[in-house]
Design brief:
single chain; alpha/beta; 6-stranded mixed sheet; about 15% strand; 10 strands; binds acetoacetyl-coenzyme A
C-alpha cells in the first residue's frame, strides 16, 4: 500500500508501520492520522499478521506530537474533530487482536507519548524522550494522555509531567514503568524485531484472549475481571491450538500454532 506519510511493510507475520515525516519530526497531521487509521483496518483484515511494530523515520523522533502547523489555525470544533479521530485511531490500536510494540526512537511528545501509551509494549532507544508538553502550548493532551498516563505511571508522576510539560529521558521512563526495555539506538529495531517474532510465534487466539482479558479487566472490578478471565480460559480450551500446544509439550517438540 502506498501512503504519503507512512511506510507500511509486512515481513514474516510482523507488520511495521513507520511514520515518515522526518523533516517535521514525524508530527501527526490529519492526513497522517487518516493513513494510520487506514493501515489499522488493513492489519485487522489480515489474519497472517501476528504483531505490529510502530516507529518513526529518522534518528531523532518517534513522533513529536500532533502537528502544530496544522493545529494553529484550527477552531475549537475542528480540533474536537481532530482529537476524536486521534482518540479513535489510538483506541483501534489498543483493540487490535494482536500485540503492538511502540519502538520509540527519539522524541515521543504529546500525541507521540499518547500513541505509545495505546500500544501493548513500549521499547525505547537510549536517546528517547517522553513528555506531554501541551500545557506549554496553552492546551491539554487531546489523544488520551490525561487518562492513560496516570493509569500507567500513577497520579503523582503523571500530574507532574502534564502540569510541567517537561520531558523525561528513557531511563526515567523505564524507572516509571512506562517502557519495557531501553536499548542503544542502533540496536532498537533489531531488538524490537526479535521481540515481535517471539510474539508472532505464539498461539494467535490465546494471544487475542490474553490481550482482551488484560485490557478489559484493568477497567473493571476484580471479581468481574476474574470472571472474564474464566470465560476467556474456557474459550481458548476449545481451540485446536490448545491441543497442539499441550501435545507438543508432551511430545517434546515445538508447537505449530495455526490460529484455529
Ligand atoms: N508540529 C509541527 N512541526 C514540528 C513539531 C510538531 N509537533 N515538532 C517539531 N516540528 C518541526 C519544527 O517546527 C522544525 O521545523 P522547521 O525545520 O521548519 O523549523 C522541525 O520539526 C525540526 O524541529 P526543531 O528544529 O524544533 O528540532 P529541535 O531538535 O530543536 O527540537 C523538539 C526538537 C524538542 C521535539 C521540538 O521540535 C519541539 O518541542 N516540538 C514540539 C513538541 C510538542 O509541543 N508536541 C506536542 C504537540 S501538541 C499535541 O500533541 C496535542 C495532542 O495531545 C494530540
Amino acid at each position: 500500500m502506498d501512503y504519503a506519510n507512512i511506510i507500511f511493510a509486512v515481513e514474516e507475520r510482523v507488520a511495521t508501520l513507520t511514520i515518515n515525516r522526518p523533516d517535521r519530526l514525524n508530527a501527526l497531521n490529519p492526513q497522517t492520522m487518516e493513513e494510520i487509521g487506514d493501515c489499522i483496518g488493513a492489519i485487522h483484515g489480515n489474519r497472517e499478521i501476528r504483531c505490529v511494530i510502530i516507529t518513526g523515520s529518522g534518528d531523532k523522533a518517534f513522533i513529536a506530537g500532533a502537528d502544530i502547523t496544522a493545529m494553529v489555525t484550527m477552531s475549537g470544533f475542528e480540533e474536537k474533530a481532530f482529537a476524536a479521530t486521534g482518540l479513535d485511531v489510538l483506541r483501534r490500536f489498543e483493540q487490535l487482536p494482536i500485540p503492538v510494540i511502540a519502538a520509540v526512537n527519539g522524541y515521543a511528545l504529546g500525541g507521540g507519548t499518547e500513541l505509545a501509551l495505546a500500544c501493548d509494549l513500549i521499547v525505547a532507544s537510549d536517546n528517547a524522550r517522553f513528555g506531554l508538553p501541551e500545557i506549554k502550548l496553552g492546551i491539554i493532551p487531546g489523544f488520551g494522555g490525561t487518562q492513560r498516563l496516570p493509569r500507567r505511571i500513577g497520579l503523582l508522576r503523571a500530574r507532574e509531567m502534564i502540569y510541567t510539560g517537561d520531558m523525561i529521558d528513557a531511563q526515567t521512563a523505564f524507572d516509571y514503568g512506562l517502557v519495557n526495555h531501553v536499548y542503544p539506538a542502533a540496536e532498537l529495531m533489531d531488538e524490537c524485531r526479535v521481540l515481535a517474532a517471539k510474539l508472532a510465534r505464539q498461539a494467535p487466539l490465546a494471544m487475542q484472549q490474553a490481550k482482551t482479558a488484560i485490557n478489559a479487566g484493568i477497567e473493571i472490578d476484580l471479581d468481574n475481571a476474574l470472571r472474564f478471565e474464566t470465560e476467556s480460559v474456557g474459550l481458548v480450551f476449545t481451540t485446536e491450538d490448545k491441543k497442539e500446544g499441550m501435545t507438543a509439550f508432551l511430545e517434546k517438540r515445538e508447537p505449530r500454532f495455526r490460529g484455529v
